[in-house]
Design a protein that fits this description.
Layout lengths: L14 H5 L11 H17 L6 E4 L6 H11 L4 E5 L6 H10 L5 E5 L6 H13 L1 E6 L6 E6 L4 E6 L7 H5 L3 E4 L5 H14 L6 H9 L5 H18 L6 H10 L9 H12 L8 H8 L3 H14 L3 E4 L2 E4 L1 H6 L10
Parallel strand pairs: 1-6, 1-7, 2-3, 3-6
Antiparallel strand pairs: 4-5, 8-9
Helix pairs in contact: 7-8, 7-9, 8-10, 9-10
Bound molecules: adenosine-5'-triphosphate.
Length: about 325
């Protein structure tokens, strides 16, 4: 996520920022989430109170940061951006908290990475808009009592399960962002092609959508590559074939698998005859860490029904054999 607080939100040369919706009305999909947020925003405005704290969870690239930037715009207020991984000691929170103005938003991305010692300060900050912070150590230690302007904390996490219950319970609004449909991704591609000044017909947008793993960020990345490819190879003209060729060239196939995904399936099918095989054995053969496979490769293969996890190990499905153009061996399932 690359949204900077005070930067030009259109981001100049940063294409990610350029493609990011600026208003809630420009967002595609997540309609039920948007509807609930609109109600909460309206009600807060009617009451003249800050919006309740909001927690977004869901896989990367589905719009958590986008929501955290459009909500303050809808509320006519400002946002500060922080990252849980960057908050190491309680004093790292201070500049953010002392900068909040009435009704403004503090966004903490990757909030599951906030250390416990800091989390406790968030409790009173969120609940009573107050922090009591101990500065220094031993005889020099002194407590600083700060009262804060009422503000809205927006937290984002890819791992909701890693949040402690006391922190999770302090968010009045909790929203899970789910995968986007092919139609929604196609619409994002078409809208963004206009921002990029290229013409992309619905068929081409469909090819890009099919290969984007239900994820807007990937749809945008694929579109940017297709634009480069078309400008270099086809006078800037985009059609379905050009989209397919462009994405093939960077190793992204018709299901959206990349080279590493196919390498995984190839190893499982060729070396382990489709499995069941242990994760560590697959990782050793591929010479990558098993964490990488488990966190970055397997989720999409599982979701695509190319892989199943059994008690005896990983197993390639018939769909995986078909996709990899391999004969399925006779084996008891
Ligand atoms: P991470 O967890 O990695 O920080 P994220 O969930 O915060 O990811 P965003 O940065 O909000 O994801 O989204 C990535 C990009 O996808 C955005 O720059 C934006 O252009 C696009 N995008 C996300 N959601 C939508 C949407 N609902 N409509 C249109 N574009 C979207």
């Amino acid at each position: 996520t690359s949204a900077g607080g005070a930067e030009d939100p259109r981001g100049g040369s940063d294409p990610d920022a350029k493609l990011r919706p600026q208003r809630m009305a420009e967002m595609v999909g997540q309609q039920d989430v948007i509807e609930r947020l609109r109600i909460a925003i309206d009600a807060a405005q009617v009451r003249g109170e800050p919006l309740g704290h909001i927690l977004f969870d869901g896989p990367p690239g589905l719009g958590k940061t986008t929501f955290a930037t459009v909500i303050p715009t809808e509320m006519n207020t400002t946002v500060q951006m922080a990252n849980g991984a960057g908050l190491k000691a309680p004093r790292d929170l201070l500049p953010y908290l002392t900068n909040v103005s009435k009704g403004s938003v503090l966004f903490i991305d990757e909030i599951h990475r906030v250390p416990r010692a800091i989390e406790e300060y968030l409790y009173t900050a969120m609940e009573d808009f107050r922090i009591d912070i101990v500065l220094g150590e031993g005889v020099n230690a002194r407590t600083l009592n700060l009262s804060l302007e009422p503000f809205t904390l927006i937290g984002a996490t890819t791992r909701a399960g890693m949040l402690t219950a006391p922190l999770r319970d302090r968010f009045q609004i909790r929203e899970h962002l789910g995968w986007y449909t092919r139609k929604e991704l196609g619409e994002i591609v078409q809208r963004n092609s206009k921002k990029l000044n290229i013409e992309v017909d619905p068929d081409s947008a469909g090819v890009i959508a099919d290969r984007s793993r239900s994820t807007p960020r990937l749809a945008n990345n694929r579109l940017l590559w297709v634009r480069d490819y078309a400008q270099s190879k086809a006078n800037g003209n985009v059609d379905a074939k050009i989209c397919g060729d462009a994405l093939d060239m960077i190793g992204i196939d018709g299901l959206g698998l990349d080279k590493q995904d196919r390498n995984y399936l190839d190893t499982l099918i060729r070396v382990f005859l489709g499995g069941p095989a242990g994760l560590d054995a697959i990782a050793h053969t591929m010479n990558v860490s098993s964490d990488t496979l488990e966190d970055e490769v397997e989720p999409f293969l599982l979701r695509s029904e190319l892989l199943v996890r059994t008690r005896r190990g990983r197993l390639a499905t018939p769909k995986a054999f078909e996709h990899m153009n391999r004969e399925m061996p006779d084996r008891p399932l």
